[in-house]
Amino acid sequence: MTAQRRTTALIGDDNRVVVGGKTLTWRTLHKLPQLPSPAAVLVDNGADALAAVRHHAVHGTELLVATSSRVDLGMREELGESGFAVVIANGDEHSVTPAKLKRVEESGRVWLLTSGSTGRPKRIGHTLESLTTVRGQQQPRTWLVPYSPGTYAWWQVITISLTQADQGLVVIEPSDLETWPMIAAEHGVTAASGTPTFWRQTIYRDTEALAKVPLEQITLGGEPVDQAILDRLKEIFPQARISWIYASSEVGASIVVHDGLAGFPKTWLDRDPQSVSDPESERPILHVDGDELVISSPHHGAGLEGAHRTGDRVEFVEDRVLITGRLDTDEINVGGSKVSAGLVRNVLMAHPAVAWARVFARKAPLVGRMVAAEVVADPDLGPITDADLVQWCTTRLPDYGVPRRIRFLDEIPQKETLKSDV
Amino acid sequence: MSELTRAQIRDLMGEVMKAQGKELPGDDSADLREIGFRSLDFSELALRVEDEIGDELNFDAPGLRQIAKVGDVLDFIEQLQSA
């Protein structure tokens, strides 16, 4: 099995990799010295992260890769106590803090850290095989890599390039995020994956620059995906395939939707996994319990077999199942009437002059909680006032769902994970 | 930021009413149901006050009371500010 993995992984070894301003291939990336195993490799740039992945693909050593900013001193201690040598990689230089616990390595194991949006990041075990969910023959593409190294979304793009021929990468460092369309256009990026916040921010900053990127495949994930952003991207890239993916470190890439619509068809719920035409393809089982999405996925992390409660809330809208947000924050109870923050956000973001919105509950007398919002207006289509938006929402939402307090922000907030905690 | 005066609270209450396409009468004894000032409007007013003073109001501090007239709203918000 190990031999098969290594052979598969290196199919993309001659793919073009643009990183740190240099055009290389996986094969010609700088080499890290022989890494201890297990090792947690903490990086500050994309080149070191890719070098760590190739080292793993060649040697099969147990690996966790993450940006150093995501792993604080306390977590480094925990990693050491769990048997990881902590390696701070920086080009040809690196420092190694030996593991405090000696244990046998798990050959071929790759560890991911969850985003930590629901608490302290957890380690989820995978392998290159379980992370490689795109297996069919792909058209030749050059992929943008805007994601933070070590996240599930990052691994999704990386494994495509590592395991398939003609799948190049253009790595965007955090310092280049604001100008990525220019870099992408220069290097002929044809496929890009990002969060809805990432796409909104790009459109907000410079739609013209974005339109010059020759995108054929656009993918959204990591946050609830609303119809407005899908439609806006379709306007800019009418010929591109626009897909959204539901994925997490725990269940892998479980839902992939290509029809240009938000949500997924109700008919996908509780499907028999054996009824697919291709018996070799594995399909997750999607289920809704109460209003929580439950997934049994073939792409799950180690030890997470069977039904996994995702903590994500869904709503049924006509024949679609919309994923509206986290279960513990999405539902706002306004004086006994319940409203989904995600659906209110969708209404706000459907306003032509709104570039981004966040909807949340505010404590209030009499009704307990009220719906409030933060909004970034599109400067080309403004100005708009809070009264305009209240009016817009009043005609589309029940009165208790209308955000009564709306604050305008100057720019779209974005974290290292490309999310904005909506 | 300092507490709002009763007049300032009344102005904010007028803004809440105006956003609903209604008008706040000048008489403190006006009945809230008759002028269409509902619980959501009251809650919005409290949030507007919070935003103005830059602090959260302590809703639990004052005892429960009937709020039926415009003056009751103004009394209650004043009391919340000093709680």
Automatic annotation (TrEMBL), chain B:
<protein>
    <submittedName>
        <fullName>Acyl carrier protein</fullName>
    </submittedName>
</protein>
<dbReference type="Pfam" id="PF00550">
    <property type="entry name" value="PP-binding"/>
</dbReference>
<dbReference type="InterPro" id="IPR036736">
    <property type="entry name" value="ACP-like_sf"/>
</dbReference>
<feature type="domain" description="Carrier">
    <location>
        <begin position="3"/>
        <end position="81"/>
    </location>
</feature>
<dbReference type="InterPro" id="IPR009081">
    <property type="entry name" value="PP-bd_ACP"/>
</dbReference>
